């Protein structure tokens, strides 16, 4: 039986915490930052938990 391969795109974007939760970076802070208000760019900082509805699909892609 062959092994399942981890989806390389998801593995770069999503990390698994010690308790098993999936976390990701927030979108919107890569480019065109000059025109965005500072309040908005501060809001984009940090990590966020993956939406509950997306978790099963992402776990399958990660091979968990």
From TrEMBL:
Sequence segments annotated as region (Disordered): 1-23
Any one GO biological process: translation
Protein biosynthesis as UniProt keyword: no
Pfam families on file: Ribosomal_L35p
Entry's Gene Ontology cellular component terms: cytosolic large ribosomal subunit
Biased composition (Basic residues): 1-15
PROSITE patterns according to UniProt: RIBOSOMAL_L35 (PS00936)
Similarity comment: Belongs to the bacterial ribosomal protein bL35 family.
Protein name in UniProt: Large ribosomal subunit protein bL35
Species assigned in the record: Kutzneria kofuensis
Protein's gene: rpmI
């Amino acid at each position: 039986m062959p092994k399942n391969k981890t989806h390389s795109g998801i593995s770069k974007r999503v990390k698994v915490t010690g308790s098993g939760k999936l976390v990701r970076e927030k979108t919107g802070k890569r480019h065109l930052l000059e025109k965005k208000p500072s309040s908005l760019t501060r809001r984009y900082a940090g990590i966020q938990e993956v939406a509950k509805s997306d978790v099963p699909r992402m776990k399958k892609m990660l091979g968990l």
